[in-house]
Queue: 2 jobs
Job 1
Amino acid sequence: SHAAIKIQPMRQFFSSGHTNNWAVLVCTSRFWFNYRHVANTLSVYRSVKRLGIPDSHIVLMLADDMACNHRNPKPATVFSHKNMELNVYGDDVEVDYRGYEVTVENFLRVLTGRLPPSTPRSKRLLSDDRSNILIYLTGHGGNGFLKFQDSEEISNVELADAFEQMWQKRRYNELLFIIDTCQGASMYERFYSPNLMALASSQVGEDSLSHQPDLAIGVHLMDRYTFYLLEFLEDIHPSSKANMNDLFKVCPKSQCVSTPGHRTDLFLRDPGSALITDFFGSVRKVEITMETINLTEPIHFVNEERQKETYSYVDQLPVSEIIHQKPKQKDWHPPDGFILGLWTLILLVFFKTYGMKHLKHIF
Amino acid sequence: GCPKDDFQEELVIRPLHSGDIYASFQFRTLWETDFMRGNKVSHYRLFPKSLGQVISKFSVRELHISFTQGYWRTMQWGQPFLPSPPGAELWVWFQDSVTDVDGTWKELTNVLSGIFCASLNFIDSTNTVQPSASFKPLGIGNVTDHRFLRYATLPREIVCTENLTPWKKLLPCGSKAGLAVLLKSEKLFHSSFHSQAVHIRPVCQDWQCKTTSWELRQTLNVVFDLHTPGQGKLEWSLFKMFSRTLTEACPLASSSKIYIDITDDPQGEQFEVSPATHLLSQAMVLGDRRTFSVYDLTQQITFGTVRSLNLLIRWKSRDMLRPLLHAERYVAGYGLQTGEIHTLMYNNHPYRSFPVLLLDSVPWYLRLYIHTLTVTSKGKDNKPSYIHYQPSKDRVRPHLLEMLVQLPPNSVTEVTVQFERALLKWTEYTPDPNHGFYVGSSVISSLVPSIVAMDTNSTREQPLFSSFFPCKEESSYFMRVYTEPLLVNLPTPDFSMPYNVICLTCTVVAVGYGSLYNLLTRSFQIEEPSPGLAKRIANIIRKMRGVPPL
């Protein structure tokens, strides 16, 4: 019957694995010549926002500011394509960690949720066991490590342990890890927690190369892997059925020069059944209800008796008051004559004990 | 009923004598409510909820935060309506019910860093000071115990679109209607000076001041550069400045106006504004009476038949009055051991002297020698009538120096103090230590004599830009001037050296020890040379046969 047919797809609608999506996008490089790493991160940010993940569910970490850098000939813009075709910075960006805040410690604290209590919500990864998380890292890396701001490194062992902590604390349902650095595949070698899928832009021993420079800006704008990833994602829309196998085909060796790699052995589902929008898009669960809900009575404000005191503005520079301000309580010092008296006493005792004949040698 | 709230927006455009143009946006929300009295406020209309919750949770009496990119050049541009130092500045007055001011301050900075997407969480005890005489509350209040005041600056803080986005979201109309549609980041950050600020304070509602309301002012000051590509003549339009035109006022605003400063040319000879308007307004601002052409956006007629307003302003270059007070600061000396900070304050008034309060907050790693402090005017010693100095404590708090100095007329006053640079611990260096370390701007607060009598009636309908600083006297007005921040190099170690030393040492050890070990333990053996091809084949056949090889 009609009702039964309608209920069926709804049950399936509610039985998919995850209920919310998060993204942690990190650019770890500082300095103007690493413009491309910021552009990489911002293009993934742009795609992820476009496919539906709201700013409140994105933790964006940029180690340096390229858009308003004084070397940028077009301020408040970060371009991904040469000839300034696409501004990935946009008009509506919210960066959660920036500048010196992008450190290994802060990154691991965000992942594991062990942040100081006064950290605001926008800087936290408030995921639960039904969250699908996308983690994107870019910067300079090597065999087994990723460099943060040219002053510290995160190793693949630390990263694997952080993900294991996340698994044990039930902080994710499924996690997609993408890394675009030199020798990126070394960073996912050590993973051992379930439900992780990883992609990297190059194998161990290979360098990830940058795409094209823009002569007006003077630096390379994007890395190859992320450039082709962006082009692939631009074709994805929120209801697309493209799956992970398509993602693995992004940037073959002919375009990337390096060999992108991926790892799916820890992922419990078949990658072919995982949609791109499971990680890059956002799920909005809507529950339809037929019952009416009564809103509470509006709050009635009682006009309270206002205090009859009058207020006034404060004098901004009360010169006479400042000059005659009472001096602050200083630290206690012994009264002036005290030290002198003490020394006199010591000398007198000395000469009393050892005889007065020494006194005339002194004076 | 609900406590009433009111929203006003205005834009003031002032052409500067150097050909640049200064635009100042102010958005003010007044709300007659009481955050402090215990009844939880839960219905927010025009006042943004995030700020309302901050005020009630942290018992804030006044909050002033500004983000600035660039430095205000007083000698070329005159005085700004609302001064601000480069980087981020935050000063807060707490209510006297707060018991742990330092703890509340730390939590407040963390929450604000989330609201404004800025790294305000770097504000801690090493860059926070408690001024003893500067920064009196700008709102109403009877008690001013400076124990409840905290002031901090982050001169390194970058301002970009990610700070503008949450700032725009606090406005009642967002950036969808009214004057805020002009706020496009690509144009705003391509300027010589950009400053956005949020000021929250309690104000008087009426002339008797029996009722108070909370005032939230969001201000944005920007100076566009003449020499930006495409400009040549002194002609500006809204479209050239902001790449947008106006189509409507914010529907929630009770007043939405644009003021164009035409003071130097009332007849309209040198100055031309189109579309023309007959509305004129005079206001006393910065000690001077200025005349403005007014465009009222709440009237449909302002937009004309094309339903859009694009103001065009043309003027010939004109002289500027020398500003009465301005200041400079620089570091003198050479090397990485010692240095000297010089602060110069210029009083350009021909015959009046006036007092200034200088506030200096120097980080602990520049060790000031206060016994070398000298204040000289016109070559002679000028003894300050009030000095408050709080010495720094390494890694705990910075130096705080406040002085009240009387500036003689038409003179330069120079304040010098010597310092020594400290060597930081390895982990305290930033990832880019060779850039240098910043010292925040000095703040000079003063009562400058005004050219015309100022209006002390604080509640008459005044444009927003002239009613920010409360005015108590007619003969002088209050002003703040900020100096440049300083960039000093500290002795920086070469961070690649540990790696280099390890490589070198290991190489030497490997070569030295390896050679010695080989010499002592290596023994030589004779080995047969490998046989030719024929012999090898013969050996294979012999192996198959089971016979020993050749």
Job 2
Amino acid sequence: MFTDETLDALGVESLWRKSQQFAQESRGCQTRPVHTAEAEIQPLLNADNGTQTDPQDHLIYQLPPKGELRPESPGLRDFLHRVEDMVVKELASNAKSHAFDGFDVNWEDQNETVSCIHCLQHPSAQEKGLQVTSISWSCTGSVIACAFGRVDDGDWSTEKSCVCTWNLDRRGLNPKRPDMVIDVARPVMSLSFHPSQPSLIAGGLYSGEVVVWDTNRTQDLILAQTGMSTDTHREPVYQRSEQVCFQVAWVPGPRRGEMVVLSAGSGGRVLLWTVDSDEGRLVLSAGFALIRQQVPHNSALSKNRGSSNVGVTSLALSPWDLDTFLVGSESGLVLKCSFSAQTLAAAPPDGESVTLRAPAQFSFSPRGGPVHSLHCSPFHRNLFVSVGTDGLAHLHSLLQPDPLLSLRVSDSYVFGVRWSPTRPLLFAAATGQGLVQIFDLGRKSLRPAATLDQLTGGQPVYCLEFNPRRKDLLAVGNADGSVNIWHLSTELTEQGPRETAKLEQLANEVAE
Amino acid sequence: IATFLGRKLQPRPQNEVEETLKRIQGQKGVQGIIIVNAEGIPIKTTLDNSSTVQYAGLIHQLVMKARSTVRDIDPQNDLTFLRVRSKKNEIMIAPDKDYFLIVIQNPSD
């Protein structure tokens, strides 16, 4: 009944689906064969010719385009015709005139005397016998911060110390009670206020750490510090062992408006740290190492054996050339260095995260002992002054190794020197006998123009700073733990008529 | 008459202005010259750009003030010359309807 049967498959065509393949047409074409030909030529005669523009005239003017006259300001010629004679007559008679000889105008109160207006002390630091190692004015000129530590201690010091600030413009200033005391675990060797943010202070510690404090905070004042980086798990102190950080400074960073902290220490390292305030640490962004063999010599001076590191005791930034900085060393070398030096330093890597470069470019004539302080003149791009243990202040030009002038400041060590911010020819030096000597290079005599006795009973003066805003204030930090604020006389702060020219003359003299 | 290849050369007015400025610059102690137009925009100068702009702006205001002072005192009077003497130098200003000539001189140089 049932049989197997196979039927043909039935197909139903789709009504709506169309074939996706479109009609295709192909065409091809090709150019006709391209004809090429080669040929060579060579000149038989050669002639050389050169042109050069004439040196530009003193007056700035534009040459009219060739062939036509540039339309000039209408009436300019006639105007000059009208006024020229009168102006020339006035200029000539003014040059000969004696009408104003000896005529001086007093716009401000004249101050004849130099006086000590404040003697700031922190009694608990003085009881511990701490000395003022560094002072710094804030950029507004109203707050003075001082760092306590020890300069004469040879041992590894683990003493606690502090940083104190006083606001001199506040009413009710109590010289015996600082406005703010920041406790620090180690002695602080160097202090520097941020050049534009008045609440940030950078400090270099005896252990080699660098800390940035933010005085606006109420709780933990430390904004950032070194030695807390996450890539090493070593003790913070160990990372920079054997190095005392002698100098900190703020320098412009790679990005506009950013400042980075520069620290220099006895290990011969000059390091640049970026502030990472979120993480609370200072990140190493660039580093330089000063190695004795890489220092350019101008005389055979490497007589002393010892470590090949050149320990840095003082540093100065040039306000004229952001690339240059000067370094003074423990052995008496004064070096001109550059931030953009590319030579790699011949130092064994110490676990730093950046490659160290050798910055020294030029070496000045060396001293017999450590160079305690250097300062570049704010009025002449080539001048700087250096002081050290030989008791002399040497005035140098960046262009030559020998000093232009050497002045005897004191019979003992000289610990600090600063140029006056208002008078090009004036600088002040702090001596080991407790005096601040102020020298005026415009005077004929080489004796100081003024001597400020700090009344410390012969104890040394370690640091001094002029107030950046108020030109007549000078702060001086002493070994007995006090900071004296001096009010200078008008003679020491008002610029004379031809001082810049005299300074220029001094700088251009060649040392015999 | 200056000729070159038989053709008369056109005199360049530009030269006269430059010559005059050179003569003034050559006077004893002159440190700089600036010519400012009526709007206070410097059109010629022997100083660097930033100093020029600074002098031009400040001195224009000063001259306007001085002129109005003179005319307020006596409406028939007018400012002819202004000299500002300071510790370090002297600024001489010759005003006019369309231009000011500013000369900075250090008489003791």
